[in-house]
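General statements about sequence and structure are easier to judge against a single worked case. No coordinates are needed to read the tokens, only the vocabulary itself. The sequence in question and its structure tokens are set out directly beneath this paragraph.
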Amino acid sequence: QKMNEHNLAVNGHKRIGLCVGGKNFDTTESTLLKETDTFFWAMLRSGQWQPDDKDGRYFIDRSPEKFSKVLEYLRDGEVWNLSRFSVDETSKLQEEFDFY
């Protein structure tokens, strides 16, 4: 069976490659599907969105810096101490979480 990078398993979980705003991220399908009724749930379960680059990555035209915070949350479920962020930064992070 031929497997490309997109389909490799990581600890028994399907590996997913994302390109967010030009920066590559790798995670697992189970991480992205931890929460239901999300952007990722629709992306991976609808069957209508396919990876769109030669490396099998899904392209998402969003901020990679903010996305890294979303991915951290999905991986470990921890919420940060928002007091270290300005009101503007907190608002922008909330917008990003709302998107996903």
The chain is about 35% helix and 20% strand.
